[in-house]
Design brief:
The complex is a heterodimer of chains A (577) and B (183). With 577 residues, chain A is an alpha/beta fold. Chain A has helices at 23-34, 72-78, 136-145, 155-169, 194-206, 225-229, 253-263, 314-322, 415-422, 468-487, 554-573; strands at residues 13-19, 39-42, 105-106, 171-172, 186-187, 213-214, 267-270, 273-281, 286-294, 300-310, 351-357, 363-366, 373-375, 393-401, 427-435, 444-452, 458-463, 491-497, 537-539. In chain A, strands 1, 2, 7, 8, 9, 10 and 19 form a seven-stranded mixed β-sheet that branches. A six-stranded antiparallel β-sheet of chain A has the order 6-13-14-15-11-18, with helices on one face. In chain A, strands 3-17-16 form a three-stranded mixed β-sheet, with helices on one face. Chain A is globular and about 75 Å long. By secondary structure, chain B is an all-alpha fold. Chain B has one domain (27-157). Chain B has seven helices and one strand; from the N terminus they run αααααααβ. The chains are: A alpha/beta (577), B mainly alpha (183). The interface between A and B is large, with 71 and 72 residues.
Chain lengths: 577, 183
C-alpha cells in the first residue's frame, strides 16, 4: 500500500483524529475522509498490510512447528490470557497481544479475560463476523425493566446507518422478517445442511416462537460491484478467517474501510503510537489532540486535530479517558457524571447442549461454512421474560459430521480402526447460549493506583463479576437447549454450564464503560456519541453502549460510528465544534 | 517503522519454521528429546500397530513416533511427558511377562494382542494404563492425520473449497475432510 500513508512526527493540525483502527476506527476514518476531512488514524500497534502480512494464511497444518498447537512455554509466558480465546492458535497468535506487554489487574474475587489485538486493523482481523441489527426491543429494554439507563436512541435513529454500513461491508443472511431481529441489506445466506433443514422444520412445529435462521455474517457470498471495486472477492468457505483473508471475503479494516479511506487521499496513519492521554484546553473546553508514546522506542510526540474520535475499544478508550486528567476533570476527561468506567458488560456464552442426529449418512457438505444456525433471543420483552431472571439469550450452533478428532480415544487398533478414522462419522448438532449481561454500576474498570505498563501508562484494574441474573440465565439456557434437542429427537444429548469456570471477557463483546444517555449526570455521551462535557470529543466504540443486548455488537459499532461522524461534520460546518 | 515490524515478524516466522518438526527416517536409531532410544523403538512399533500400512503409509512410516516425542516436549506438561514414558514401559513390561520378550521383538500379531489388551484392561493392564494408552493413541491419531500424507491422502483436503455447499452426496467425497479450521 501507499508508503506515504504512514507518518510519525507532524505538526499539522488535522481535521479529525481517529484513535484506533479496528471496526469503529476504520469506519470513522473512511467517513471523515470521504467527506473531505484530513484525517489521522492513530494506531498503537504495528502495521499489518492486507494480504502481505497474513503470514500463516493457506499453510497446511503439517507446516506449523507443532501442527497448529502453541508451544507450552510460549503460551504460558506470553499468552496466558489470550490463549483462553477460542480463535487463539499457532496460526493466529501474532494477531493477539503479548500478555507480558499488556498487564492489567483484577479485583480479588473477580476476573476478566481481556483479549487484545493491538495492530492496524485491531480486532476486525480476528472477529467472528456475526452481524445483527439491534431491534427496538433492545433499545427499550433498560427503560422497561429498569436495569441500566435508557438508550437515548431508537431503531429509527440507526436504521439508515445500518443500511449504509451493510452495503459497503457486505452482510450475508436471509430475509427472515422477525420483529426481534430486523433484517439487514443482505447478500445471499449461506446454505443449510440437510439435517439442519429437518431440525429447522421440527423446531418450527415444537417451538414456533423460537425460529432458527441462518447466522448473518460479514462475508461476501455474492460480492456486489462495490465490493469488487474494493478488491474483494467471493468467500471461499475456508473458515480460517482469523489468519487474515487475502480474498478480502470478510469485512475487516484492511479489506474494506481502509482502502476506501486511503483512496480519498485524505488519510494518514500514525502506527506504533500508544495514546497516553488527550490534550485538553480548559479555556476553549476542547480537546486539542493526543499525547503519544512510541510503541517501540518510548519517545513521546503529539498529534492535533479539530475533532477527536475515540475508537480504541471499550477498555482501551476508557483507559485513555481515565488517564486524561485536568483541573476540570480530575477523574478522567469528560467524566463529570462519574460513570466513566462503570457498567462494564460482556455477553455470557457459558451453556448449551449437543446431541447426535440419526441417519443422513449419505449426506455431506463441501467447504467450511463460516457461520451457523441462529435462534434469536425469544425472551425479547418483559412479558416474555422467565419469572426468576431478566432478559434473554440467543442460541447458536450447527450440524457437522464427526471426524477423526476426538475418536483417537475410542477403542480400536489396526487397519480397520484406521479405515474408520478416514470416514465421516455421525452427524452432531449443538445449540450454545449467547446471553445478555445486565449493566451494573459495580462492574467497574479503573486505573490502578500504582502499577504502570512499559509505556508508563497506569494499568487498568478490573472488577467485573457475573450477577445472579446471568447465572440463572445460563442454568435455564442449559436446560432449554437440552430440552429442545431431546424433543427434536437427537440422541445422547449432553449439556453443559461453564459460568463458574469462565470470567467475563471471553465473548470479546466488552461494552458499556462510557455510556450514552439523555442525562449528563448519569452518562458520558449524548445520543450522537458526543461527550456531554466536551463538544469535539466523541467515543463510538462499545464503551458507548447502555446495554449489551443479546446480538453481537460489531454491526452496531459501525452504525453508531458513521452516524456520529455525520453529526460531527454537520456540527463542524455549523461552527458548533 | 512498518518495515522493521515486518522484518521482525518475518524473522520470527523463519525461526518458527526452523524449529518445526520435520519427519525423519531414523527416529528409532537414537534417543529423542523425551524418550530413550529404547522407548523410541517401542513407540515406533506402537504407531505401526495402531495405524498400520494400508493404501496409505503406516504411522511409523510417517515418523509419527518422532513427532510425538517432539510434541510432548513442546506442547504438553511435565506430568503428561512422564505419563508417556510410563505407558511405554508398561507395554514393554507386560510383553515380557506374557511373551518373555521385549515388545519390539514380538510379532505384529502379538503386538496387536498386547495393545488391544492395554485398552481392554487385560493381561494385567490397569484402568490407569488404559487411560494413559488412550492418551498416547490420541496423539498417534493426531500425529498421523496432521502429516501432509495423512491430511491430504488418507483424508480429503480442501485448501480453498471455493464456497460452501450444504448438501452433496457423501459418496462424491467418500472420506472425511483433512482440512479443518481448528486443530
Amino acid at each position: 500500500m501507499n508508503e506515504g500513508l504512514y507518518i510519525n512526527e507532524t505538526t499539522d493540525e488535522y481535521d479529525a483524529l481517529v484513535i484506533g483502527s479496528g471496526i469503529s476506527g476504520g469506519w470513522a476514518a473512511k467517513e471523515f475522509c470521504e467527506r473531505g476531512f484530513k484525517t489521522l488514524m492513530v494506531e498503537r500497534g504495528r502495521v499489518v498490510e492486507h494480504q502481505k502480512d497474513y503470514i500463516t494464511e493457506g499453510k497446511g497444518v503439517w507446516q506449523y512447528p507443532n501442527r497448529m498447537k502453541v508451544d507450552n512455554l510460549l503460551a504460558d509466558e506470553q499468552h496466558k490470557v489470550q490463549k483462553l480465546c477460542y480463535a487463539f492458535h499457532d496460526g493466529t497468535k501474532h494477531f493477539f497481544g503479548n500478555d507480558k506487554d499488556y498487564p492489567y489487574s483484577t479485583e480479588k474475587g473477580s476476573g476478566f479475560s481481556w483479549i487484545r489485538a493491538n495492530q492496524l486493523g485491531g480486532k476486525s482481523l480476528l472477529w467472528h463476523r456475526q452481524s445483527y441489527r439491534f431491534s427496538d426491543f433492545d433499545f427499550n429494554a433498560n427503560k422497561l425493566d429498569g436495569h441500566g439507563n435508557d438508550w437515548p436512541i431508537r431503531y429509527k435513529d440507526l436504521a439508515s446507518w445500518y443500511l449504509h454500513v451493510e452495503k459497503h461491508a457486505g452482510i450475508s443472511g436471509n430475509y427472515d422478517n422477525l420483529a426481534q431481529l430486523p433484517d439487514s441489506d443482505f447478500l445471499p445466506p449461506f446454505e443449510w445442511t440437510k439435517p439442519e433443514l429437518a431440525l429447522q422444520e421440527k423446531f418450527s412445529t415444537l417451538f414456533p416462537e423460537r425460529p432458527m435462521v441462518m447466522g448473518r455474517t460479514a462475508h461476501l457470498t455474492k460480492p456486489s460491484k462495490l465490493h469488487i471495486s474494493q478488491g474483494r472477492v467471493q468467500c471461499q468457505a475456508r473458515n480460517e478467517c482469523q489468519k487474515g483473508c487475502s480474498f478480502g471475503a470478510y469485512f475487516s479494516t484492511q479489506s474494506s474501510t481502509l482502502p476506501a479511506a486511503a483512496k480519498t487521499g485524505n488519510l494518514h496513519i500514525a502506527p506504533n503510537s500508544v495514546v497516553h492521554s488527550l490534550i485538553y484546553d480548559e479555556h476553549t473546553n476542547r480537546v486539542k489532540g493526543v499525547r503519544v508514546i512510541d510503541n517501540d522506542n518510548l519517545t513521546t510526540r503529539e498529534y492535533f486535530a479539530k475533532v477527536v474520535f475515540l475508537c480504541a475499544s471499550t477498555l482501551g478508550s476508557t483507559q485513555i479517558m481515565l488517564n486524561s486528567k485536568s483541573k476540570k476533570f480530575p477523574n478522567g476527561i469528560a467524566n463529570s457524571s462519574g460513570v466513566l468506567g462503570h457498567y462494564l458488560m460482556d455477553h455470557v456464552y457459558n451453556a448449551g447442549a449437543t446431541g447426535r442426529i440419526e441417519g443422513y449418512h449419505d449426506e455431506f457438505y463441501s467447504g467450511r461454512r463460516p457461520t451457523g444456525a441462529y435462534i434469536p433471543n425469544f425472551q425479547f420483552e418483559p412479558s416474555k421474560y422467565k419469572k426468576h431472571y431478566k432478559r434473554g439469550y440467543a442460541l447458536s450452533g450447527g450440524a457437522n459430521r464427526s471426524n477423526w478428532q476426538g475418536r483417537g480415544s475410542l477403542d480400536g487398533i489396526g487397519a480397520n480402526f484406521k479405515q474408520q478414522l478416514t470416514q465421516a462419522g455421525d452427524w452432531y448438532f449443538g445449540l450454545h447460549a449467547q446471553g445478555e449481561m445486565l449493566p451494573r454500576f459495580e462492574n467497574q474498570v479503573s486505573l490502578h493506583a500504582s502499577k504502570k505498563d512499559k509505556w508508563g501508562i497506569p494499568q487498568l484494574h478490573i472488577n467485573c463479576q457475573w450477577s445472579n441474573n446471568e447465572k440463572l440465565m445460563m442454568e435455564d439456557a442449559e436446560h432449554t437447549a437440552k430440552d429442545m434437542l431431546e424433543q427434536a429427537g437427537l440422541k445422547e444429548v449432553q449439556s453443559y454450564n461453564s459460568i463458574d469456570s469462565n470470567s467475563p471477557g471471553l465473548a470479546i463483546h466488552e461494552v458499556g464503560t462510557a455510556r450514552m444517555g439523555k442525562d449528563p449526570k448519569s452518562s458520558v455521551l449524548n445520543a450522537y456519541n458526543q461527550t456531554h462535557d466536551i463538544p469535539n470529543l466523541f467515543i463510538t466504540d462499545g464503551s458507548s453502549f447502555c446495554s449489551s443486548a443479546v446480538v453481537n455488537p460489531s454491526l452496531t459499532f459501525m452504525a453508531l460510528t458513521v452516524r456520529a461522524v455525520d453529526y460531527a461534520v454537520q456540527e463542524m460546518k455549523n461552527k458548533r465544534i | 517503522m512498518s518495515g522493521s515490524a515486518v522484518a521482525q515478524l518475518t524473522a520470527g516466522n523463519a525461526l518458527a519454521v526452523a524449529l518445526s518438526y520435520e519427519s525423519r527416517k531414523d527416529s528409532v536409531a537414537k534417543a529423542g528429546k523425551l524418550f530413550s532410544q529404547y522407548q523410541m523403538e517401542i513407540l515406533a512399533d506402537v504407531c505401526n500397530v495402531i495405524l498400520p500400512k494400508t493404501n496409505t503409509p503406516s504411522a511409523a512410516e510417517l515418523d509419527v513416533h518422532g513427532f510425538i516425542d517432539h510434541q510432548l516436549v513442546s506442547c504438553y506438561s511435565k506430568a503428561q511427558q512422564a505419563q508417556g514414558k510410563v505407558i511405554l514401559n508398561r507395554i514393554d513390561q507386560l510383553s515380557q511377562t506374557h511373551f518373555s520378550m521385549a515388545f519390539s521383538q514380538l510379532s505384529f500379531e502379538q503386538q496387536t494382542q498386547v495393545l488391544i489388551a492395554a485398552e481392554q484392561q487385560d493381561l494385567g493392564f490397569t484402568a490407569n494404563d488404559e487411560k494413559l494408552f488412550k492418551g498416547l493413541k490420541s496423539l498417534v491419531v493426531f500425529g498421523f492425520f496432521t502429516t501432509e500424507i495423512g491430511a491430504t491422502q488418507a483424508l480429503s483436503y480442501q485448501a480453498v473449497p471455493g464456497g460452501f455447499k450444504g448438501s452433496i452426496p457423501y459418496d462424491s467425497v467418500g472420506k472425511s475432510y483433512g482440512s479443518l479450521a481448528y486443530y
